[in-house]
């Protein structure tokens, strides 16, 4: 089942709206050289992230984004488009995160979210767990990063 968007807005989206097998695509977000360098200087100060000249002499042949910046950009797209603004209870963690291809300044990223599982909590029946896989794509539709995660989401209140 491939959907381009949810039928329910983020401000009215609950556990019941996350159907197993659904696939959603969202984006884009630009990767800028300034953001790559600024982020890396603060959090991942390796030459292939911070110095365009030095990066030319690395196996990457030029400046690349820190994988953690790529993950942050993915999270921005996820929160702006997929995560419920009224029922999200966060996540107990990420099961898997892989960086498959370098992300470079000038790239435009988008995400593809596949809902893999959805189960209501037995111990807390007011919520459910939704397992997803996320592919981060560049403008060539190449998968540059993947993630598998679980989110906790409130159920709709029933009378």
UniProtKB/TrEMBL annotation:
Entries under SUPFAM superfamilies matching the protein: Thioesterase/thiol ester dehydrase-isomerase
Domain MaoC-like: 26-126
Database matches in InterPro entries: HotDog_dom_sf, MaoC-like_dom, MCH/BMMD
Pfam families membership: MaoC_dehydratas
Protein name, per record: Acyl dehydratase
Origin superkingdom: Bacteria
Organism: Geobacter argillaceus
CDD domains linked to this entry: YdeM
């Amino acid at each position: 089942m491939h959907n381009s968007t949810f039928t329910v807005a983020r401000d009215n989206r609950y556990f019941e709206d996350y159907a197993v097998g659904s696939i959603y695509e969202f984006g884009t977000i630009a990767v800028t050289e300034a953001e790559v360098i600024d982020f890396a200087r603060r959090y991942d100060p390796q030459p292939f992230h911070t110095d365009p000249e030095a990066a030319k002499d690395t196996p990457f042949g030029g400046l690349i984004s820190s994988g953690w910046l790529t993950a942050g950009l993915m999270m921005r797209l996820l929160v702006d488009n997929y995560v419920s603004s009224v029922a999200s209870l966060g996540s107990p963690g990420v099961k898997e995160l892989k960086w498959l291809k370098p992300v470079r300044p000038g790239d435009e990223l988008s995400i593809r979210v596949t809902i893999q599982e959805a189960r209501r909590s037995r111990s807390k029946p007011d919520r459910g767990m939704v397992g997803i896989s996320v592919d981060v794509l560049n403008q060539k539709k190449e998968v540059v990063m993947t993630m598998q995660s679980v989110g906790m989401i409130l159920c709709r209140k029933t009378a």
